Amino acid sequence: MSVLVYTENWDGKFKKLSFELVSYAKQIADRSGTTVTALSIGAVDEAELKKLGNYGADKVLSATDERLNVLINKAYASVIAEAAENEGAQVIIFANNFTGKALSPRVSVKLKAGIASGVNAVPSSYDPFTVSKKVFTGKAFANVVIKSDKKILTLFQNSVEIAETGGDAAVEVFSPALNDADFATKVLDVNKITGKVLLSDADVVVSGGRGMKNADNWAPLEELAAELGAALACSRPVSDEGWRPHEEHVGQTGKIIAPNLYFAMGISGAIQHLGGVSSSKCIVAVNTDKDAPIFESADYGIVGDVQKVLPELITAIREMKAS
Amino acid sequence: MKILVCISNVPDTTTKIRFTDNNTAFDATGVQWIINPWDELALTRALELKEASGEAIEKITVINVGPQTTEPTIRKALAIGADDAVRIDAVPEDAYAVASNLSSYLKDNPYDIILCGIDSSDYNGSLVGGMLAEFLDLPSVSSVSKLDIDGGDIKLNREIDGGSEVLSTVVPFVAIVQKGIAFEPRIPSMRGIMMARKKPLNVVPSGGEAALTEFVSYDLPPAKSACKMVDAENVKELVDLLHNEAKAI
Amino acid sequence: MDFLFTEEQEMIRQAARDYAERELIKDVLERDEKAEMPTAHIKNLTELGFFGMMVSPEWGGGGMDSLSYVLAMEELSKIDAATSVALSVHNSLVCYGIEKYGNDAQKEKYLRLLATGERIGAFLLSEPEAGSDATSQRTIGEDKGDHYLVNGTKNWITSANLGSVYLVTVQTHPEKKHHGINVLIVDKDTPGITLAPHEDKMGMRSSDTHSVMFSDVKVPRENRIGDDGFGFKFAMKALEAGRIGIAAQAVGIAAGAMERAIQYSKERKAFGKLISEHQAIAFKLADMAVKVEAARNLVYKAAWLKDNGHPFSLASAMAKQFAADSAMEITTEAVQVLGGYGYVKEYHVERLMREAKLTQIYEGTSEIQKIVISRSILK
Lengths: 323, 249, 379
Description:
Chain A is α/β, with parallel strands linked by helices. Chain A has nine helices and 16 strands. Chain A has helices at about 15-30, 45-50, 75-85, 100-110, 220-230, 235-240, 270-275, 295, 305-320; strands at about 1-5, 35-40, 60-65, 90-95, 115-120, 125, 130-135, 140-145, 150-155, 170-175, 185-190, 205-210, 230-235, 260-265, 280-285, 300-305. In chain A, strand 12, helix 5 and strand 13 form a beta-alpha-beta unit. In chain A, helix 3 (about 75-85) crosses helix 4 (about 100-110) and helix 5 packs parallel to helix 9. The N and C termini of chain A lie far apart (about 55 Å). The model of chain A has no long low-confidence stretch (mean pLDDT about 95). Chain B has a single domain, classed as Rossmann fold, CATH 3.40.50. Chain B has helices spanning about 35-50, 70-80, 95-105, 130-135, 190-195, 235-245; strands spanning about 1-5, 10, 20, 25, 35, 60-65, 85-90, 115, 140-150, 155-160, 165-170, 175, 200-205, 215-220, 230. The mean pLDDT of chain B is about 95. Chain C has a four-stranded antiparallel sheet with strand order 2-3-7-6, with helices on one face. Chain C is an alpha+beta fold. Helix content of chain C is about 50%, strand content about 15%. Chain C folds into three domains: about 5-115, Acyl-CoA dehydrogenase/oxidase, N-terminal domain (Butyryl-Coa Dehydrogenase, subunit A, domain 1, Orthogonal Bundle); about 120-230, Butyryl-CoA Dehydrogenase, subunit A, domain 2, CATH 2.40.110; about 240-379, Up-down Bundle (Butyryl-CoA Dehydrogenase, subunit A, domain 3), CATH 1.20.140.10. The mean pLDDT of chain C is about 95. Chain C is globular and about 75 Å long. The chains are: A alpha/beta, B alpha/beta, C alpha+beta. Chains in contact: A-B, A-C, B-C. At the A-B interface, helix 3, helix 4, strand 5, strand 7 and strand 8 of A face helix 3, helix 4, strand 9, strand 10 and strand 11 of B.
């Protein structure tokens, strides 16, 4: 019996997200009277693996075969399923990010484990096993009962508090059986985004809409983002117009995010956009139209021209930091 | 070569979400049903690939697991340009049951390329494509934002958390596609609309495993408190509020 | 009776709505301001099969019913009536007229190309001194044996520039008054035809409207539709059908303005609450909804009568008069609901109000419709 949590690494390092997952696993394990095993795939040094202990992992399995240096869905799913079998895992936890979405459904079929994806809280009941997840793109929550013996949860980022337990984890090498047939897909080229805060793990997101007028007006938004250590995002019209890459599109058909602080600059707040950002802890909106629907969802608002407000906002933040 | 596009029937994305029966069921009153937006983009890319392929891609099939009420949505896909359609006659209870149903049909009716949208705008599962690939023991490439076929070579771009990758794979495979795969869904032509009823829509009985999960009740998010307005001439006050009151910066 | 749309009708409505909301909306304000023709949109709508949608598949058309066409007109007109008017003239006047009254040779030569939208049609009836009174045609079509020699001027011609198949009414036997009128199919590139500059209009500014001058234009005799002197009857019959298209357009304009007013009333606050919560505004919206629905039902019924082979002259006159007058009232009220914003171009409703005005004027003014209606009920 255990709770298995798949902890992804980025160039050998974990992120806040990884620690949130382990904290989440720890809460479930405590309630179920069992332990947490974290599974790491790829090259991560022992010191980094040990960090997971501080958030509640009792054991860390580390699979480092070279062939696993890139994400191959079919192969990774086999590795995770094998670890789950070995550990007798009753609950398996993934992040609800691209990797989690790629792997969890494959593992579900291998183990015949029912999934609740995009869950936003610890289970409200363990018998029946019931957990809340986002549906209708953040417009509602559903309570899902998982009926199978084994259960998979993919956790929506920023859903639970990260708690340091001061614990220590035993690190074990894990050498799964790899099957050549699982490697039919090849990664030919990788383009990592460097020097930028990623939208998926940003605490603060600065987002621009049609009110930015054109692609050339993004410099002050970038400056604000740099000042706050924030990631950049945009509304759908902006990515459709090609002012910004589609990776930055947040909303119903783009990314769904839940940062602590979201700046909606020149975004009117169409229902499809709000779906993607409504879980943000705090929303700030700047728009010339005082009747824009974004103000219905915002915590703080300014009616005004983004181009005029932005430089003043940057100055005010600098002054605040300096004082 | 044959392409299969899996489509879901979902409420229009502007639908105001409500529940009935003591919050245990989605209220479908007055709801306009559409092809799940990501599935529609998948279909759009399939059509582009077929048109560019000469004779190499012989047909595009759309498949849906659903009751008869989903047929208007399936015929919309035929009007847009799919060559034929399959409806597996079952209520889509969860992703596992849907993927299982799809796989039991596809084991006897194989396709070279299977496309699924990354998510469905109703239950936000992001699961069916990956599950289907596992049931069929096929490679899956997920979060695909570009798909090209050059002769027999399949090239894909996928978005990862923190970048993007270029991949190759071999047929048959499942691609789980997202934004970027196609620019904008197509509007069906009058000719397409008239042809839709003449194209085959084969209804096959359910043949999959039972669901592993159940949606038992729903909640709406709590109402947001009123927005605190700050004067545009006093941006400093906003920063003070964010720092001292919201403690967000 | 059945008030439900077929799946195809619903799909056509959705296709028209998608096109309007995705494409027409992008440049509708700019085209209105600059009075620019919607050339690219006409081409796109042609590719989607809207031009010629009711023509029988036998002649290469879409074979759709009038109700489908009405739904398309309504949805396009919610956003941009200046573009939809070209569709109305092409489908319900030109294609309908030639398909119903033309001979096989004329259909082979003209209808086939109109059915696919490869050529766009225009209907040349109005003259500087013959608007509502179409009997007083001054354009002469002199009978020269193997051809007619046409001289005169036609006014306010939609698609005069974009179109290339003209249906032109001419007076051949002035002594016979309206019994002397003929209708001729005229190729726009025939020598002797010139266009006046684009009309600078109050509304529908982007619609392609010109005066057309005929100077010794030779039109082959085989291009006459029907027997000698059939032209006036042809025009009246074509207008009966055309009224359904314009009525649908008026419903679309009204519904478009109403939707914008509803949306705005749910966002704008005054005196501490949403303006939709003020009865003065809520009742305006209720009045709009009733009128739109009533107009819609009149139009759908006229289309249904036409599709099922029943006389529809009275129904189409009632539909057009009520829909056009309602559109004028509703758009005016929509501007009122939006207040200062309503008077600003960016918010669309003032443009819809300018567009609504024309629906009371062209293809038979509201007063002409009342003549048709009153004559019919007093018979």
